[in-house]
Amino acid sequence: MDLLMLITYTHIAAGILSLVAAPLALLVVKGGKAHRTAGKVFFWAMTWIFLSALFLSIYKSIPFLLMIAVFSYYSVVVGYRSIYQKQLSSGIRVKWFDWLALVVSGLFNLGFVIWGAYHTVNGTLGAFTYLSVGFGFGGLLIVKGQLLSFVKPQDDKYRWLYSHIGNMTGGFIASVTAFSTQVMTFMPGVIQWIWPSIIGVPLLFFWISSYRRRLAGSVRLSDLVELKR
User: Fold this and answer.
1) Which of 6, 25, 30, 162 is the most buried (most CB within 10 A)?
2) Tens digits of residue pLDDT in 198-213
3) How many angstroms separate the CA atoms of 15 and 44, rounded?
4) pLDDT tens per residue across span 36-60
5) How far apart (Å, rounded) are the C-alpha atoms in residues 78 and 145?
6) How many CA atoms lie within 13 A of 113 on its CB side?
């Protein structure tokens, strides 16, 4: 087996693993051992998906594979790291690799917006130019939110939790999107790309809003999340 086939097969295997681990993390008790284990499996599966996608997208010249890889992985990185950034408002300094990830993701997503806008003006690539602009703009919103959390005191002590939920689930939605574009070819091309977001994003906003309402009331964090001892 040559290197290209090995990377391709392991990329597919990691994709399948991510699609199993993420729902498990969503279904079990949040913060519990099973949740943390499934979350780590999802994170490291997404890490290999990202690294292998970089190689495959460049080797096979598939810009949209690169786009979804950068978008989804940075979302997962932000969600994963948010667990370790609970005390940013208390003077805890941001790690250098968090800044590096932010800058790299920002440059990539800005590039996707410019690239999509260029092809839109020139009338090439059809509706996929709007996908490039849309995903790039969405990625920049994640970067902006992370940047603000780095440089401004957090006015919500549970912001890390909402970031964790939103970005880890957002990475899962992006992973489903990648799966859809490769497997669900019976759908129209653009629909393959957007249906996971159409379904997943409203549910995600509802979930986070539910947590906000409950935590703003009489519900304690320990009632919703099994805090690590």
Assistant:
1) 25
2) 999 999 999 999 999 9
3) 11
4) 999 999 999 999 999 999 999 888 8
5) 10
6) 13
Our CA angle for 194, 198, 202, nearest 5°, is: 150
Inter-residue long-range contacts of 133-138, CB under 8 Å, 24+ positions, other chains counted: 135/67, 135/68, 135/71, 135/109, 136/67, 136/71, 136/109, 136/110, 136/111, 136/112, 137/109, 137/113, 138/71, 138/109
31 in the Ramachandran plot: left (φ > 0), alpha (ψ -120 to 50) or beta?
A: left
Token pair recorded at residue 15? 């994709």
Report how far residue 177's alpha carbon sits from residue 217's, in angstroms, rounded to the nearest whole number: 35
Residue pair 109/71 in contact by the 8 Å Cβ criterion: yes
Q: Which residues contact 50 (CB under 8 A, 6 or more apart)?
A: 69, 70, 72, 73
> Is residue 170 within a helix (H) or strand (E), and if so which, with residue range?
helix 159-183
For residue 119, give both structure tokens: 């092809």
Q: What is the DSSP letter of 93?
A: P
Cα radius of gyration (the chain):
18
End-to-end CA distance of the chain: 46
Q: Are 175 and 87 in contact (CB under 8 A)?
A: no
Model-level pTM?
A: 0.89
